[in-house]
Please model this.
Amino acid sequence: MLEALDYDVYAEAKNCDVVGRKNDALVVVELKNNLNISLVSQGVQRQQLAQSVFLGIPEPKKKNRSFRVKQEILKRLGLGLITVYQSPVRLAAQIIIQPTFEGAINERKRQELLEELEKRSVDPNIGGSTNVPIYTAYREAAIMIANVFAAAGPTNLRDIRAFSGEKADSILARNVYGWFERVERGRYTISEKGLKELEDYDKINSLVRDKPEFKKFCDHLNTKTVISS
Model:
């Protein structure tokens, strides 16, 4: 996400989990699995280095009252919030709260951080997807399986399971979206409805089909089909 905003991105610089730099502008992101007091404390400390400080956490499954109260606390402290969404297809980040801190910066510590960044080349890192709508992880898993059927035709459940995990059993058995058909026991394919509705997810489809492991898997399935025939 930071790369898409034209920042150079660094990891683990002067105790900061992630630093984005664009000219003289700095963004600091502190990461944890939960939005807790330890993470908030780290964020407040990083405000000595930059006014744009975000806390980064996984996308909450439930945004209940407790989570909303925590958001209000972050707003009062001027801290930003980024949630990271993960599905079988991709990672994506969303800015939930923009930082608004306007307090004093410790210029000595900020300069030490800048000097640390100057010593490095830009860190190699894997960027997440951008400009792609957020769907449920369940739907994206179904899209991935539908793409396999569209590319390789009828496929055994055990093969699909090997590629997309144990959730494939539930996705195919429940068939929530009506995208799949059982050809025979333990063997499935995509339905006409699935083929038609799959066209609505062009960006996700591209992410799936561009994965080397997807191409390798489909080639493997097609090879098995040729040999068996």
In short: Residues 212-228 form the longest helix (17 residues). The radius of gyration is 22 Å.
